[in-house]
Amino acid sequence: MKIAIIGMGRVGETLAYSIVMRGLCDHLILCNRTASTATGDAMDLQHSLAFCQHSMKISSGEIAQAKDADIVVITASISMSKTMSSRTELGLVNVALFRELVPLIASNNPDAVLVIVSNPVDALTYLTTKLSGFAASQVIGVSTLIDSARFRVMLSQVEKIHPDDLRAYVVGEHGPNQFPIFSQAIVGCESINDNPLHREIFDQVTDAGFEVYHNKGYTNFAIANACTEVLRTIVSDAHRTMPLCTYFDEWLGITNNCFSIPVVVGRRGIIRYLYPALNKREQQDLNSQARHATSRNSGTPVAVIRSPTQRIGDAPAALRPPQTEHKAAQSWLPQMALRLFGIKF
């Protein structure tokens, strides 16, 4: 198993450390535009192997040297400034960066699963799918997995129950338009009620990343651990469920879109989608999110990308609900990527 990390900033180096401590691969390659940074991280991690229960090859180099990996994680990004208040402010520069990186990464790693961490993660996941030519199942954005983890932790502090015993998904676009699926949230065998206290906790979740950022100047531990869980699931072919960003042809009546939805993950990436029965408010939240983006980014939908059905299969047709909901939610995020960040093909 060979894993490559592209971008050795705060998140990249924390992720590398997490991979080494868990022994997730046989060969870890660290790549950075400034190769000496990756070399220093590789040496430092090699020295830590004396304290591990496993061996691992750790190498470094320029981005072009990442070849034939099973998984490629892209954390490369410009730095956020102290004045930034939205992840979309990274969009213009990171889109240009991904235009340069993704074709090379895809060419050198044709069988890899690509895991996107850089922000704005939903737009960049869509862009990576388009630029790479990979099946949508092979391109995964970590997106609201981190928000779901934060939500579980904050709920666990109120419920006085371990966060691993809570199941509460946050879906949608990573940021202010994401929303919780309370109707399917449980703690142990009890439902987690949609009440004012839990809504207040969710509001804190939405702001949590920026609160960490404004206190310490960056975020790294939680997002690196979230990404590590995705990698562990892929490596072990664990078939675990989690909310992740993916391009899809259709989900709950929404077509040709790219944001976080509940999925099952295995060795080849996304195996299938899950279709929760949303209540009325959640359906409204989903439509509202779509209308918000569509009102800013009207235009012609982009070409269809290959979906998971063309590589490893989607949920059986019998498990899919009829396309009767969310008709206003057509193709909004691809249009956002096209219009907001000037993406043209």
Topology of this structure?
Layout: E1 2-6, H1 10-22, E2 27-31, H2 35-48, E3 57-61, E4 71-74, H3 91-108, E5 113-116, H4 121-132, E6 139-141, H5 145-159, E7 166-167, E8 170-171, E9 179-180, E10 186-187, E11 190-191, H6 196-216, H7 221-235, E12 240-251, E13 254-266, E14 269-273, H8 280-296, H9 332-340
Parallel strand pairs: 1-2, 1-4, 2-3, 4-5, 5-6
Antiparallel strand pairs: 7-10, 8-9, 10-11, 12-13, 13-14
What does this structure look like?
- The protein is α/β, with parallel strands linked by helices.
- The chain has two domains: 2-141, Rossmann fold; 145-340, Lactate dehydrogenase/glycoside hydrolase, family 4, C-terminal (L-2-Hydroxyisocaproate Dehydrogenase, Chain A, domain 2).
- Helix content is 39%, strand content 19%.
- The chain is built from nine helices and 14 strands.
- The chain has helices at 10-22, 35-48, 91-108, 121-132, 145-159, 196-216, 221-235, 280-296, 332-340, and strands at 2-6, 27-31, 57-61, 71-74, 113-116, 139-141, 166-167, 170-171, 179-180, 186-187, 190-191, 240-251, 254-266, 269-273.
- The strands form four sheets. The chain has a six-stranded parallel sheet with strand order 3-2-1-4-5-6, with helices on both faces. It has a three-stranded antiparallel sheet with strand order 7-10-11, with helices on one face.
- Helix 8 (280-296) packs parallel to helix 9 (332-340).
- It starts with a strand and ends in a 5-residue tail after the last helix.
- The model is unreliable at 292-334 (pLDDT under 50).
